[in-house]
Amino acid sequence: MKPIQVGLLGIGTVGSGTFNVLQRNQEEIRRRAGRGIEIAMVADLDTTRAKQVVGDAVKVVGDAREVIANPEIDVVVELIGGYGIAKALVLEAIAAGKHVVTANKALLAVHGTEIFKAAADKGVIVAYEAAVAGGIPIIKALREGLTANSIQWVAGIINGTTNFILSEMRDKGLDFDVVLKEAQRLGYAEADPTFDIEGVDAAHKVTLMSAIAFGIPVQFDKAYVEGITKLAGADIKYAEQLGYRIKLLGITKRTDKGVELRVHPSLIPAKRLIANVEGAMNAVVVNGDAVGTTLYYGKGAGSEPTASAVIADLVDIARLHGADPAYSVPALAFQSHTLAAAGHELPVLAMADVVTSYYLRIRVADEAGVLAKITTLLANAGISIDAVIQREADEVGGEGSTQTDLIILTHDTREGDMDKALAEIQALSTVLTPITRIRKEELN
Amino acid sequence: MKPIQVGLLGIGTVGSGTFNVLQRNQEEIRRRAGRGIEIAMVADLDTTRAKQVVGDAVKVVGDAREVIANPEIDVVVELIGGYGIAKALVLEAIAAGKHVVTANKALLAVHGTEIFKAAADKGVIVAYEAAVAGGIPIIKALREGLTANSIQWVAGIINGTTNFILSEMRDKGLDFDVVLKEAQRLGYAEADPTFDIEGVDAAHKVTLMSAIAFGIPVQFDKAYVEGITKLAGADIKYAEQLGYRIKLLGITKRTDKGVELRVHPSLIPAKRLIANVEGAMNAVVVNGDAVGTTLYYGKGAGSEPTASAVIADLVDIARLHGADPAYSVPALAFQSHTLAAAGHELPVLAMADVVTSYYLRIRVADEAGVLAKITTLLANAGISIDAVIQREADEVGGEGSTQTDLIILTHDTREGDMDKALAEIQALSTVLTPITRIRKEELN
């Protein structure tokens, strides 16, 4: 059978990885897929660089629409990124009857409903294993491996840049700003790192996982997003002393009232496997009612790890030859006509309605009665305390200091109730600086 | 579309889990699969117990062949186990044109070539996600998620009983026999635990993973199999002091000369994630040339975790409606006509040709010159030493002891060379008891 003809849109880091791996492993991939997979055409604005990557055997063009218009092309791989031209090209490729493979989490988290509907109407596949956690086959695990389960929750370290920064902060006892600069120097963080450090990239990814875990539409606009820029070295140290690590988690959870969808720094018990995921590595924990807790770990970014996911999607498409698209794996794991109703039954909860436990660090005047005042306010709000550490003032502020840190761990609390209690505590004259509040997840 | 009609052969632990999960999550599963999945018929020798599990709505028979002969049944799920009647029934189901789902690792590791050929000839699927690592979708990861890669090695904790025993030995400082009895009392080990503790069960599973990782036939007869029955508490303690944990690993590795296929206790650096997999949990590490190292973790046994894998296979079959079987996922991940040739190119290596590093514990007379003699014999055999610990005699044998333990870590060595050197060392009059030799894997 004729090899599948692939057109690449964009041949940067992931595109060249895809080309190189397909070349290097072509014989093994053909033995798996039952037919060859060939990159027949590449579109990139920088045609000179593109030609350096792919050589003379592959046609290189500057206009992506030439790839889409080519009737020989079976699958279009979109590696441009962003919401703009990428969206238009993906929709045009679908309209032209091409299958699409994309690593574009931002595009799918925001415009997925429109794109998947267009694909379903046209009977083509939009595959996106590379959009979440790089080379880890987590989309496959959620959409196919765990189909028996009522998924209860998913929690993942799904942004390598922030995990690298947090690992370095802990290992070297450094503050955020210092480590960010080092990460930029080493290439682990981009020149403009906003999407990573503010949690937006993780929120795109957890939005996709939420949809395929629970069978609801993608709803990025309803995600709660908080990054790691306000984390202090002190919090990482205190967490450590309490037996926890701080990680930026993307979390989505099924509750009686709806679905939680949130990205924020979280304390995790140090003994959990996921708490020991260091550096730029990714890991996703999935809890299903039948299977219990499972974990998936690997490289979440990089040229060849991401290419591994892109090519797995291409092999899947090759293997589906002749399959009835109405029955093959639905784009969002559940049959598309059932998504909207499920979205009404399982709405995404406002952050105020999320129930979790908390780590609080409160900088207070080192005076008698301060702890009593604070714990009374918490008790009045119905918030129950799990543990309290009061530091020696000298340890915190140096010799002769009149300030100290109160560290409080709470039991499960509605976030809205916590917000109110914290506003009252913050207003106390003996509370000297803005309170630090970090959510805590047991993940068991 | 009509629900898929499933016939269960055997309704013990996994069978009742499969029935219960399909009942409980039927609506979600239907939304995923595009059609319902119904257990229409159950065969079990104990029809009374079977009826208690499934109630009146499902037909229960004592003769499995009634299920296979029923033209309404689309898929036969074999949960009987073993090589005997299970093999005959699986082949009969295939001959009758039924797809087969099985959790029977022993059957597939030994008779897989015959069974998969029969299925390919008949155009039906034999799916076996439940045969390896219970609910962890590791077969799917290897056959589908990592298809871009030239897989380099796979190493897994794939037997929960032995991992539970090793965890308890380490935590409580107890010896093997004591913990085995406790494990039997708690239901983590069977009354006849031989298949687990001697490594046979793990060898069945790693044989399957080896085939689908490297595209070679299943070759259980060529696996090296060593269990945990000879492990002493002392080795676990010494390993700990050296920064290692001891785990029973199933390992398969691609080398220039062929494929390593082996099960034995192994020292692993304590900082690796897989070294921290405790109790009855399973984990598999897969290294591919593009993706790097990935890890998959979860429950490797139990009623509903295993049912999760069985049902995932059923959903896969439902979703393949209309697909050309010549192109859908091959049983052993690679197109079947390519397996035999690959098996010749990549033969399974004899254990003597495996290269790995070693932990040695040698009980010696506490005399001058003993260490020099032993290290000279190792050097003469071309074995290079990574670290040596000589214990104080008093610590090892109590006050006034004239015996002590030498602990030696070696660099990579051919097993055949190590065998020869150990025979010479064992023959020394100052070596007092049989030498303990445990292989060491870095897994990075």
TrEMBL record, chains A, B:
Keywords in alphabetical order: Amino-acid biosynthesis, Methionine biosynthesis, NADP, Oxidoreductase, Threonine biosynthesis
Domain of life of the organism encoding this protein: Bacteria
InterPro entries: ACT-like_dom_sf (IPR045865), ACT_dom (IPR002912), Asp/hSer_DH_NAD-bd (IPR005106), HDH (IPR016204), HDH_cat (IPR001342), HDH_CS (IPR019811), NAD(P)-bd_dom_sf (IPR036291)
Top-rank EC class of the record's enzyme: oxidoreductase
Record pathway: Amino-acid biosynthesis; L-threonine biosynthesis; L-threonine from L-aspartate: step 3/5; Amino-acid biosynthesis; L-methionine biosynthesis via de novo pathway; L-homoserine from L-aspartate: step 3/3
Record has NADP as a keyword: yes
Domain ACT: 359-439
EC code: 1.1.1.3
UniProt record similarity statement: Belongs to the homoserine dehydrogenase family.
Name of the featured protein: Homoserine dehydrogenase
Organism: Comamonas avium
